[in-house]
Amino acid sequence: MKILPDLHDGFFDGVWLSADKRARFFVRSVAGERSTIILTDVEALNICGLRAGNIIFDLVLIASDKLTVKNIEQAYDLKSGEVEKAQQLLAKAQAQGLSGLEINPSYGAEGTALFRAVATLPEHVLA
Description:
The chain has two helices and eight strands.
């Protein structure tokens, strides 16, 4: 699985979703180095708690075979009683070879995404 830059205590500056099922996460390290994390073929994405000055505790990449029902519930914003639906979506995600990205905050935004591929570019890149 792809290695992400060290973003502990770094910043989540925002996200841009495009019509072609891509998501771009704009991040900065604690030293101020900017990066763009590009997710391709995004199947589900749920980010909440977005605030000015979002501080990242960690970003976790999750391999398809390591996805859990909890990851699915978070990505699709399912209620706790929707276990059967979550299990079906988990099986589908694993059959499609999707991976997960989990944003855990020290402050602000947190979320989970399900996607097919990930890449990291230096700087904040839109196009």
